[in-house]
Design a protein that fits this description.
- The chain is mainly α.
- The protein has five helices and two strands; from the N terminus they run αββαααα.
- The two termini are about 30 Å apart.
Amino acid sequence: ASPESVALLSAPFLAGGVEVGISGRAASWNVVLFCLLVAFLFADTQLMAPNLTAIGEDFGFTPRERDEKLGGAISVAFFLLGAPVALLIGWFADSLPRKNLFCSVLFLGQLPA
């Protein structure tokens, strides 16, 4: 992490009227851990795009069917499920402790994998 980002992350902020801050080392560790968790959470979703041809062949799709079903329908399904869930998680972020919410979302996101 760059010195500017560590300084920004370790800058104190007010939480319940009390000034709170974390050290540069802890801030760097938090950023690294967050990046790893996000990479693992989304790793499986990025595997489909480069393998659409092989997946389509396995299911016996024509090139047109492959593009329509795998390239279109699956993407729309992810959006139709993801958009309402994102709104719900946003609402929870305003009313629940974020650390617990973050851990819960990571756990639930890994269940299908």
